[in-house]
Write a structure and sequence with these properties.
alpha/beta, Rossmann fold, seven-stranded mixed beta sheet, 7 strands
Length: 265
């Protein structure tokens, strides 16, 4: 047991070496990350782009139950745009937002049916500006909140509230690993002597390690006095194989659907 507990701390020198020279700014880190990507989708360089049907089927079924398809859909943290494009099967107008100009340029070149914008998701007033343009909207977030600090999570929640207005719904899906970030890295194949290339790419760019995001974090980020929790539960998100020919990753996750509570008149 002692060996198992201490094994993860042996990763620290390797992680420190991998992160040498990485920017501390997360906006710069994500720009550096997306600038290093050469291929997206299954078999590509992006850890979370496995495109497994099970994940898409849960999203589609949940949206059909709880979201008005006549409203625009905003994909916050859209990255390469693959998920935003998938959402065009549900909404006639989809807008993808990401803080990386490189990611947005890639997305716009690949998926012409979606409108893409560069914006800091934690920028105060972003939700109001988008709502002025789009009106009440549905929102999709996948794998964004788990890499944000608490203050940024609160700002993104405020952005979501402004976008939803009175009729929109938010669908979120985040990794919910039970251990700390070092445990998560061990499960992703990190060892004191070697990091899987897909993991090394993120660490060397300076991207913040994911934290757990489950029911407690949903309640903290979307408190009941201002938000209505419509549905939530355990699920999985899928990652591309860590090594060529390896299995698709099945990562513990949590999904939720929330709405804003009606304002008292």
């Amino acid at each position: 047991m002692i060996v198992v507990v201490w094994r993860k701390y042996l990763l620290i020198p390797r992680l420190t070496l991998a992160a040498l020279g990485a920017p501390r700014s997360q906006s710069r880190a994500w720009e550096r990350y997306w600038g290093s990507v050469t291929r997206t989708g299954p078999g590509g360089d992006v850890l979370w782009e496995a495109d497994e049907p099970a994940e898409t089927e849960l999203l589609a079924a949940t949206l059909r139950r709880h979201a008005d398809p006549s409203l625009p859909m905003v994909d916050l943290g859209c990255g390469s745009g693959r998920q935003a494009y998938a959402l065009t099967g549900f909404a006639s107008r989809v807008v993808g937002i990401d803080g990386s100009a490189t990611a947005i340029a890639r997305a716009a070149a690949a998926f012409g049916d979606v409108t893409f914008r560069v914006a800091d998701l934690a920028s105060p007033g972003l939700g109001e500006r988008l709502h002025d343009e789009l009106g009440d909207s549905n929102v999709h977030i996948r794998g964004v909140l788990h890499v944000l600090d608490d203050a940024s999570r609160r700002t993104v929640a405020a952005t979501v509230a402004a976008l939803l207005g009175e009729t929109g719904a938010l669908y979120l899906s985040e990794t919910n690993h039970t251990g700390d970030p070092l445990d998560y890295l061990l499960d992703q194949g990190a060892r004191p002597t070697r990091l899987p290339p897909l993991v090394h790419r993120l660490i060397s760019a300076g991207v913040r390690a994911p934290r757990r995001f489950g029911p407690e974090e949903v309640a903290e980020c979307f408190p009941g006095d201002a938000w209505q929790l419509v549905e939530q539960g355990a699920t999985e998100v899928y990652g591309v194989p860590l090594e060529p020919g390896g299995p698709v990753q099945r990562i513990p996750a949590w999904y939720a659907v929330v709405r804003t509570r009606p304002r008292r008149r």
